[in-house]
Design a protein that fits this description.
- The complex is a heterodimer of chains A (about 300) and B (about 550).
- With about 300 residues, chain A is of the alpha/beta class.
- Chain A has ten helices and 15 strands.
- In chain A, a hairpin with a 2-residue loop joins strand 13 (about 245-250) and strand 14 (about 250-255).
- Chain A starts with a strand and ends with a helix.
- In chain B, strand 3 and strand 4 form a beta hairpin.
- In chain B, the strands form five sheets. In chain B, strands 4-3-6-7 form a four-stranded antiparallel β-sheet. Chain B has a four-stranded antiparallel β-sheet with strand order 11-10-14-15. Chain B has a three-stranded antiparallel β-sheet with strand order 1-2-5.
- The chains are: A alpha/beta (about 300), B alpha+beta (about 550).
- The interface of A and B includes residues 52, 83, 84 and 104 of A.
């Protein structure tokens, strides 16, 4: 497997705050990697370290086979980055900005750029400062796609966009990316979009990568479990570590098991609640996984 | 070399210059209104100089200065260097390419036109080519340093409002920090006694300031943070300014200088003398001879300051131009120089021209009487107030402020001539020029004073290159037998003073007037002014 991004114990500190710590992350060539996590989890910091916008304070990151701290202009010709769209030069028109960026990339694809322009319905004559946020995101995406990068890094591209624009972005850009052999690393709160687009998912919480695996495996491993308890008594002992977001409503208990195995889960349930009957397990949407982890994290923080 | 590598090398070879051009074009496309204003201001400056329009030259100065700093800042802020969010940072633009493009823009739009403008102005005043190159080089260096500092502070500030705030803050810090220094200066008048050649505006200082600016900006850029960089910068520049500016205050006012000591009024004695110089336009030179006695100063003796006014009986009042007398210069009889000695000096009569008067039958002054009151100050200490009768039906000749022709007398009897021209000015320019010549309108001839240490023939115009002028006294002395205006002139220079000697025909001098044209340059901020004064009308030597 050829890795486009590979980090080893990557860390970044801002004063006393450890934004990212000991991050081991890999993004395979041709994959779409979704990085999710609550606010302040370190997603943006991670992406910025990868494109050398900020320097790590520990560890190492390799992007397209090169140390992220030593990325040069020739490397950046292979990396598309969409961050805060407000950094686009406001005084330029859309057409002028495209014309300005075009000579920077020997691989710039005019035909592809034209297709993106049409698909995104961007007004060529309008100044960037007068574009809506959605239009600016689309423009930033266009400027990062038109040279067919080997790695596309998207930082919260769907944030604040209406569903139509999200659909345009998803359909128009990312699916086009899938057509090529590009790698996409996308950090977003929009779990539904990540679930639809990504084939790998990583969950970052308080700067630590909680899990990182193919989406299919994750969906196979995580299950929403529901069981009818024999009574309302508290269980003997604590819940297994793999149970997240345990809820009880009378005799009904629900939780997300992140390492679901029917026999093991049945055994654990019977051990904690003698006399319990069968339980049901269903596939978990990524949104539910995200919420389960977020709540678990909040609960642990409250206990500390 | 593999095909891929070769292709990449070719691509880089072609792409990089193209990227630089691309960025320059982009910046020019955005900043062209300010660039046009800047270039127009340079054209107006050159035209103002050619037309000798002082008002226009001064009026365009703020426009030019604001344009220069604004352009330097905005071109950098087009692609912010510090911080983490600049658009270019995730684009294939290296820092070197970006800096190169910014330097190219500033070079083409700001630097080259400004230097060309300076050179154009200087070529109009017939400077020797070596001197021209030297001055243009110095002006170019300071312009480069100014641009570097402006651009570097903009890079650290990372925003135009912060950039403006930075300069206001830096100026305020420098002002506050230098306040005690200026209090001393104000109290002791010692600017005119000090070393007239401050060292701070030297190439080394320019390079040092630019280096500090670059270093501070580099830290901000590499650290990708602006706050610390800007703070460092804001402190560094005023501190450096004070450090480099301090040597110019290396003045004679040492602790032994008795500025606080009260001196008795009788220290000063003076007599009023009148020297009549008859010409076709009759004039009279009124002089006063001061004797400082008894030896009042067991410490450094420098100068006394004279000022006063003619008070007419009808209430009209004509001020006497103030001037500073340098005792030692009179004692030595030639070049004025400043004293730092702690050795007491013997009482020395000091003679000074107080007024040059128009004809006695002038309608304005015929029959009027008045009193000439003279105040004489030593340092901050007033040491004498004189009230002398003045019954001349004429007025003191008004000289333009800023440049006075103080001393004109024939010495040692006929046919020797001595001219002493004093100019006090406050500037800190890169160079200074005086054109001084005698003009005989009747003969339509000009006799110039040529500065030449090798004794070159007389030529029209005297050029006094003055690389570093702060407060300056220039004394021109012309001594010798008046036998014609041809001859050899020498100008031994010492201590920042020029002395020119030469010969002029006695007959030629009748009705001649002395014209002084003063031009002053301050690096990229070119200023000039012209003062003309009629000094000498004579057809016979004084007794």
């Amino acid at each position: 497997m050829i890795l486009t991004v590979e980090t080893h114990a990557l860390g970044r500190r801002f004063g006393r705050t450890e934004a990212v710590r000991d991050l081991d992350l890999t993004v395979a060539r041709g994959s779409i990697y979704g990085l999710v996590g609550p606010n302040g989890a370190g997603k943006t910091t991670t992406l910025r370290m990868l494109v050398n916008l900020i320097r790590p304070t520990s560890g190492h990151a390799s992007v397209l086979g090169k140390d992220s701290r030593r990325l040069q202009d020739r490397d950046l010709r292979r990396i598309g980055y969409v961050g805060d769209p407000s950094t686009l030069p406001r005084w330029m028109s859309v057409g002028r900005l495209i014309a300005h960026c075009r000579p920077l990339y020997p691989e710039w694809d005019d035909a592809f750029c034209g297709r993106l322009l049409a698909r995104f319905h961007l007004p060529v004559e309008r100044k960037v400062g007068r574009l809506s946020r959605g239009e600016r995101v689309k423009l930033a995406l266009l400027l990062s796609l038109a040279f067919r990068p080997e790695l596309l890094v998207l930082d919260e591209p769907f944030s604040g966009l209406d569903p139509l624009v999200r659909e345009e972005l998803s359909q128009g850009a990312l699916e086009l990316a899938i057509e090529g052999d590009w790698s996409v690393l996308i950090a977003s709160h929009d779990i539904a979009e990540i679930e639809r687009l990504a084939d790998h998912v990583g969950y970052l919480d308080e700067g630590t990568l909680v899990f990182s695996e193919p989406l299919a495996e994750l969906q196979e491993r995580y299950r929403a479990v529901e069981a009818m308890l024999p009574g309302t008594d508290e269980p003997d002992g604590s819940y297994p570590e793999s149970w997240l977001d345990v809820e009880r409503a009378g005799r009904i208990m629900r939780f997300v098991d992140r390492a679901y195995d029917r026999d093991k889960t049945s055994h654990d349930l019977r051990r904690m609640f003698p006399g319990i009957q069968e339980h049901t397990a269903s596939a978990v949407p990524l949104q539910r996984v995200f919420l389960a982890h977020a709540r678990e994290s909040r609960r642990k923080a409250a206990q500390r | 070399m593999s095909d891929a590598t070769a292709a990449d090398t070719r691509a880089r070879r072609h792409v990089l210059p193209r990227v630089v051009r691309q960025i320059v074009r982009k910046d020019a496309g955005h900043l062209w209104p300010i660039a046009v204003l800047w270039l127009s201001s340079l054209v107006v400056t050159v035209l103002a100089f050619a037309a000798e329009s002082e008002i226009l030259a001064f009026a365009i100065w703020p426009v030019r200065t604001v344009c220069l700093y604004t352009l330097a800042a905005l071109v950098v802020l087009e692609d912010p260097l510090a911080g983490r969010d600049a658009f270019w940072r995730t684009r294939p633009i290296s820092l070197a390419t970006l800096l190169g493009s910014k330097a190219l823009f500033l070079g083409l739009v700001v630097f080259v036109p400004a230097v060309a403008s300076e050179a154009l102005q200087m070529t109009r005043i017939d400077l020797p080519s070596t001197r021209l190159i030297e001055i243009v080089g110095l002006a170019a260096l300071w312009l480069a340093a100014t641009l570097t500092i402006a651009a570097a502070s903009a890079a650290s500030a990372n925003g135009f409002v912060r950039f403006v705030g930075f300069w206001i803050g830096a100026y305020a810090l420098a002002t506050i920090a230098s306040y005690p220094l200026w209090k001393i200066i104000e109290r002791r008048h010692f600017l005119e006694l000090g070393d007239p050649a401050p060292t701070w505006m030297s190439p080394a200082t320019g390079l040092l300031l630019a280096a500090v600016a670059i270093g501070s900006a580099t830290l901000a850029i590499l650290g990708r943070t602006r706050r610390l960089g800007l703070a460092r910068f804001m402190v560094a520049i005023p501190v450096l300014y004070l450090v480099v500016a301090s040597p110019r205050e290396n003045v004679v006012l040492t602790s032994t200088f008795a500025t606080d000591r009260s001196l008795p009024p009788e220290t000063l004695n003076a007599t009023l003398e009148s020297v009549r110089a008859r010409t076709d336009l009759d004039r009279e030179i009124v002089t006063a001879t001061f004797v400082v006695s008894p030896d009042p100063l067991p410490v450094a003796v420098s100068s006394v300051r004279v000022e006063g006014a003619i008070e007419f009986s009808d209430g009209d009042r004509i001020p006497v131009p103030s001037r500073t007398l340098f005792l030692q210069s009179v004692q030595q009889g030639d070049a004025a120089s400043l004293l730092t000695t702690t050795r007491p000096l013997p009482p020395v009569p000091v003679s000074t021209v107080l007024a040059a008067l128009p004809p006695a039958d002038s309608e304005e002054f015929a029959g009027r009487k008045g009193t000439l009151e003279i105040r004489v100050e030593f340092g901050v200490q007033r040491i004498g107030v004189l009230a002398l009768p003045f019954e001349k039906g004429a007025t003191a000749m008004r000289q333009d402020a800023g440049f006075r022709i103080d001393h004109a007398a024939l010495i040692d009897g006929s046919p020797n001539l001595r001219l002493a021209i004093t100019s006090l000015r406050q500037n800190a320019g890169t160079w200074h020029q005086n054109d001084i010549f005698l003009l005989n309108r009747g003969l339509e001839e000009i006799a110039g004073f040529s500065r030449s240490s090798s004794g070159s023939p007389l030529s029209a115009g005297l050029t006094i290159p003055w690389p570093r002028v702060f407060f300056t006294e220039i004394e021109l002395a012309c001594e010798g037998p008046i036998s014609g205006h041809r001859g050899r002139w020498t100008s031994p220079a010492s201590g920042g003073f020029q002395r020119v000697e030469g010969v002029l025909g006695d007959d030629w001098m009748g009705g001649a007037e002395l014209v002084v044209v003063d031009r002053r340059y301050e690096g990229v901020v070119t200023q000039w002014f012209r003062k003309e004064g009629i000094l000498l009308w004579r057809d016979r030597p004084p007794r």
